[in-house]
Automatic annotation (TrEMBL):
<feature type="modified residue" description="4-aspartylphosphate">
    <location>
        <position position="73"/>
    </location>
</feature>
<dbReference type="InterPro" id="IPR039420">
    <property type="entry name" value="WalR-like"/>
</dbReference>
<protein>
    <submittedName>
        <fullName>Response regulator transcription factor</fullName>
    </submittedName>
</protein>
<keyword id="KW-0902">Two-component regulatory system</keyword>
<dbReference type="GO" id="GO:0006355">
    <property type="term" value="P:regulation of DNA-templated transcription"/>
</dbReference>
<dbReference type="Pfam" id="PF00486">
    <property type="entry name" value="Trans_reg_C"/>
</dbReference>
<dbReference type="GO" id="GO:0000976">
    <property type="term" value="F:transcription cis-regulatory region binding"/>
</dbReference>
<feature type="domain" description="OmpR/PhoB-type">
    <location>
        <begin position="150"/>
        <end position="247"/>
    </location>
</feature>
<dbReference type="Pfam" id="PF00072">
    <property type="entry name" value="Response_reg"/>
</dbReference>
<dbReference type="GO" id="GO:0005829">
    <property type="term" value="C:cytosol"/>
</dbReference>
<dbReference type="GO" id="GO:0032993">
    <property type="term" value="C:protein-DNA complex"/>
</dbReference>
<keyword id="KW-0238">DNA-binding</keyword>
<feature type="domain" description="Response regulatory">
    <location>
        <begin position="24"/>
        <end position="138"/>
    </location>
</feature>
<dbReference type="InterPro" id="IPR001789">
    <property type="entry name" value="Sig_transdc_resp-reg_receiver"/>
</dbReference>
<keyword id="KW-0805">Transcription regulation</keyword>
<keyword id="KW-0597">Phosphoprotein</keyword>
<dbReference type="InterPro" id="IPR036388">
    <property type="entry name" value="WH-like_DNA-bd_sf"/>
</dbReference>
Length: 248
């Protein structure tokens, strides 16, 4: 993850609690560099952040801090993230939990969600994806309100709602993954502007994908199948330069 991502990680409407106080997030991971980067990105959102490097420390902080959301690594040096979550739930807290883990098997995903987790992000990830997932969890928990009077972005008949994470074209809903959503949002915030693969990689993905521009091509193709299928194309390739979103 580049430090420049932290500048990009939060450009949607800010969320805060109904009483105006900041959203509180607890970040639990035993990699200090990662917790520092996440903390920076979340504080840029205007949220209050605490961190923990071990499971038992996380439980102590959670009981005192009363976070509105928890970002929780599964692999911790003392007790694992699943045990942390079970104890949080046993304490009576229904705090939304976003799991972070290097594991990517279906069994691990099922274990995390069965234990009471709300969402799951696999390392390596982009800071923007974590922020996007957290915003979605917090909004669905009805804890937060948005500063924005109109969170919608529209280009032609394509509309994206940054609060509800809903996308539609000509009134027809389009289901997108978190990464597809962030890619489309970047394109829609820059209509009629050519965006290079390097710019898209920096904005949507972590540095771990550095040089692998094929991931951009793959996700552009995914978006085209969902956004442009059977319609006038809006996502255009500018040969040798990048991609552009524009109406016909």
């Amino acid at each position: 993850m580049s430090t420049r991502e932290t500048d990009h990680a939060a450009r949607g409407p800010r969320l805060h609690k109904a009483d105006g106080s900041p959203i509180r997030v607890l970040v639990v991971d035993d990699e200090p560099t990662l917790t520092d980067l996440l903390s920076m990105a979340l504080r840029y959102e205007g949220w209050e952040v605490r961190t923990a490097g071990e499971g038992r420390q996380a439980l102590t902080i959670a009981r005192e801090f009363r976070p509105d959301a928890i970002v929780l690594d599964i692999m911790l040096p003392d007790i694992d993230g699943l045990q942390v979550l079970q104890r949080v739930r046993a304490d009576g807290y229904e705090t939304p939990v976003l799991f972070l883990t290097a594991k990517d098997s279906l069994d691990d995903r099922i274990a995390g969600l069965t234990a009471g987790g709300d969402d799951y992000v696999t390392k390596p990830f982009s800071l923007e994806e974590v922020v996007a997932r957290l915003r979605g969890l917090i909004r669905r928990s009805t804890l937060a309100v948005s500063d924005s009077t109109d969170p919608r972005i529209s280009v032609g008949d394509l509309t994206l709602d940054e609060d509800s994470y809903e996308v539609s074209r000509a009134g027809v809903p389009i289901e997108l993954t978190a990464t597809e959503f962030e890619l489309l949002r970047f394109l829609m915030r820059n209509p009629r502007r050519v965006l290079s693969k390097a710019q898209i990689l920096d904005r949507v993905w972590s540095y771990d994908f550095g040089g692998k521009s094929s991931v951009v091509e793959i996700y552009i193709s995914y978006l085209r199948k969902k956004v442009d299928a059977g319609r006038e194309p809006m996502i255009h390739t500018v040969r040798g330069a990048g991609y552009m979103l524009k109406t016909a």
